[in-house]
Amino acid sequence: MAQEIKKKDYPKPMSFVTMVFWTGLFGGLFWGLIGLMAYYFNFTEIRLNIILEPWALGHWKNEWLGTVISLIILGFFSVGAAFAYYLALRKIKGIWMGMGYGIILFLLVFFVLNPLFPSMKPFFDLKLDTIITSVCLYLIYGVFIGYSINYEFQNNKMEANETAS
């Protein structure tokens, strides 16, 4: 006899909001580490530690402690970006909106927020390697956040329709 598997036998899945939080945090930490590697391999001239410039004083922010704290701060900013995507764009299918979201974030950081970071050159003074690497990182980050949130939204919607039937 085959044993019937019931839904109550499985652990309860995490809520959608919790998934958005973890997606944002993981996305910020993971893609921040990729950006850090891009800096160390000279693909970009922008350090991860630049995020501390408006708030922190002292030389420590350019050392390993500054790098770790910058990565953590980036993770929490990423949670905010993930919730912004969740609130505004979660219903739009496909990767294109995620790519667009990544470009919007890139433009926001490099044009609007640029004056907050004294060590970041104006956009048109940056090396081409830095621009290309940054655009690619923001594109992939946007796809990661957008597609993850949209996939979960569509999956939850489909499950709700099956349950209602």
If you had to describe this structure to a student in words, what would you say it looks like?
This protein is mostly helical and 165 residues long. It has one domain (18-160). It is built from four helices and no strands. Helix 1 (16-40) packs across helix 2 (64-89). The protein is elongated and about 60 Å long.
What's the number of domains? 1
Q: Report mean pLDDT, rounded to a whole number.
A: 90
Low-pLDDT stretches? none
Shape: elongated
> Major beta sheet, specifics?
none
Element pattern in H and E: HHHH
Rg, rounded, reads 19 Å
Compute the number of strand runs: 0
Give the termini distance in whole angstroms: 28 Å
Q: How many H/I helical runs?
A: 4
What attributes characterize this protein structure?
165 residues, mainly alpha
Give the structure's gist in a few sentences.
The chain is mostly helical and 165 residues long.
